[in-house]
Amino acid sequence: MDENNTVLPGLYAAGEAACVSVHGANRLGTNSLLDLIVFGKHAGLNAAAYANGADFQSLPDDAADFARQQLDILRNSRGQEKAGDIARQMKTEMFENVGVFRTEEGMTHALQVVRELKERFKKIRVDDEGQIFNTNLIQAWELGNLLDLAEVTAQAALARQESRGGHAREDFPKRDDANWLKHSLAWLKPAGVELKYKPVMITKYAPKERVY
C-alpha cells in the first residue's frame, strides 16, 4: 500500500513483508510464528478465494523487456569492475555505519559510499556471457538490487531522527511518537530516494517503551 492505503487487487503478503506490526518495531529473534502461521493462513485463504473469482489479466507486450534489458546490459558490459569487490565494500560500509547503532555522520558516509558503488556498478564486468544457468550474471544482477536497497535503507534511516526497535540512533536515543509514529515508505527515483509516510494504526495495545 502507498501512503493513502491504496489496495493493489490480488496482491497478498504474509510474514514481515506484510507489515502488520504484530511485534512492533522490532520482533524478538525467531518470534515470527504469529506473522507466518496466523496471517499466512488467512492470506492464503483469501488469495485462493480471490483467484477463484478473478479473471485472467492481460499482460503488456513489453512485460519482460525491463528485466531482459538489465541482464543484457550486464552480459554485454566491457567494464573492469568486479562484482565481488563492490559487494565486499557495500557489506562493510553497511555493517559499520547502518547497523543497529547509527549516527547521522555514519549514515551520511554510507550513503555517499553506496552511491559511489552504484556508479562503479555501471562499469561491472561479468565474465560468463552464457544464456543458461549463468550464476555469475544473476549474482551481479542481485548486487545491483542490493545496492538500491542499501541506498533506500540508509536514506530512510537518516531521515528518521529517533530510536525505535532495531533502529537505534546514538544522536537521537529517545523514541519520538509525536513525530515518528509512522511507517516509512520509499520510492527509488532517477533523482534519488523519495520518502513518504503513513500513520500506524493502533488498535488495542499502544506502543510502550522497552525498559529491559
Could you explain how this protein is built, in words?
This protein has helices at residues 33-53, 65-76, 83-97, 104-121, 135-159, 177-180; strands spanning 101-102, 168-169, 182-189, 192-199. It has a two-stranded parallel sheet. A two-stranded antiparallel sheet has the order 3-4. By secondary structure, it is mainly alpha-helical. 15% of the residues are buried. The protein folds into two domains: 1-58, no CATH class; 80-199, Methane Monooxygenase Hydroxylase, Chain G, domain 1 (Up-down Bundle). The chain is 45% helix and 9% strand. The two termini are 33 Å apart.
Topology:
Elements: H1 33-53, H2 65-76, H3 83-97, E1 101-102, H4 104-121, H5 135-159, E2 168-169, H6 177-180, E3 182-189, E4 192-199
Key phrases:
212 residues, mainly alpha, Methane Monooxygenase Hydroxylase, Chain G, domain 1, 2 domains, two-stranded parallel sheet, 45% helix, 9% strand
TL;DR?
The chain contains six helices and four strands.
Name the poorly predicted regions: none
Shape: globular
Count of strand segments: 4
- Helical run tally: 6
C-alpha Rg (nearest Å): 20 Å
Taken in chain order, the helices and strands follow as HHHEHHEHEE
- Kindly report the name of the CATH homologous superfamily of the largest domain: Fumarate reductase/succinate dehydrogenase flavoprotein-like, C-terminal domain
State the end-to-end distance. Answer: 33 Å
Would you state the CATH class of the largest domain?
Mainly Alpha
Compute the number of structural domains.
Answer: 2
Structure classification? mainly alpha
The CATH topology name of the largest domain reads Methane Monooxygenase Hydroxylase, Chain G, domain 1
